[in-house]
Write a structure and sequence with these properties.
The chain has 287 residues and is α/β, with parallel strands linked by helices. The protein is 46% helix and 13% strand. It has one domain.
Amino acid sequence: MQYWRSGWFRNPLGLSRMNQPPKFAVSGSAKRYLHQALLLIHRVHEYLILFIGLTLLGLGGLLWSVVAFLLRHTLSHAQGVRCGRRGASTGFRFYLKILHWGGAARFDLSALDGLRGREPLILVANHPGLLDAPMVLSRLPNVVCVLKASLIDNVLWGAGARLAGYIRNDWFIGSMNLAVDELYKGCQLLLFPEGTRTEALPLGPFKMGPAYISHRSGIPVQTLIIEQDTAFLGKHHSFLKRPDMPMHFRIRLGRCFAAPADPRAFTLLLHDYFLSEIQTNRTEIQQ
C-alpha cells in the first residue's frame, strides 16, 4: 500500500537567487525550541481533530436517530428502508470527507464503486476497526448489514439501523432467513465473519453464518480486504489514545467465491484466504 504526501515548496514566492532576502544564522538552541513548538502545535492539532471527529460521529448519530424515528412512523416500510439506507450512505460519506479534510485520515475506497448497482452479492470482509461498515456503506447505498444486537438497541444507532432494515444477529435462524430474503429482493448483504472486531491481529476465527447464507441462497460471496496502518478504533484501542495522523485506509476487492456445497469446509477455506491476503499485504508494506 503506497501513499503520497505533499511536501513543502522550497521557493513559494518564486524569488530568484538574486532577489531573495538574506539568510540569518539561527543558533542550535533556537532551532531546538522551534522544533519543540512546532511539534506541540502538531500534537494539539491532532488531538483537536480526534475530539472533533468523535464528537461529530456521536452528534451525527444522535441527530439521525431522531430523524429516523420520525420517518419510520411517517413513511411506508419500503420508503423508509430506501430513505434509511440512502441517508446512512450519504451521512457516512460526508463524515469520511470531514476526516479527510481535517487531515485525520486518507481513504482509498474506489474499488467499491465497481459493486454499485450490481447483482445481489454477499460481501464478506475482515473487521479491524469501527470504520469498516461506514466505509462500505458510504459507497454502496443498497447494502443491508447484519449488526450486533447491541448496536440495534443503541440510542445513537438503533433508530437509523431499524429504519434502514438492518438485521440484528441474535435471531439465529430468523436472522438468516431475513438475510436470504433481502438477497432475493436484489440487495447486497454485508457480513463480518469474525462476528466482532478482530480480537487478535491479523485475523480472528470465522463463524459459519456467511457460508450458510450463501449455501441456502445460492448467492456468491465477494470478499473485501480491509487494510489500515493504524490500530485506532480497533478492539482493544482506547478512543482517547492519539493515533498517528493521517491514518490510511483501503478496501480492495478480493476473490469472488461461488455458493458452497459444504458450509463448514468453505468457512475454513475463506479464513485461510483472508489470512493469506492480509499477511501478503503486510509483507509488501514492510518491504
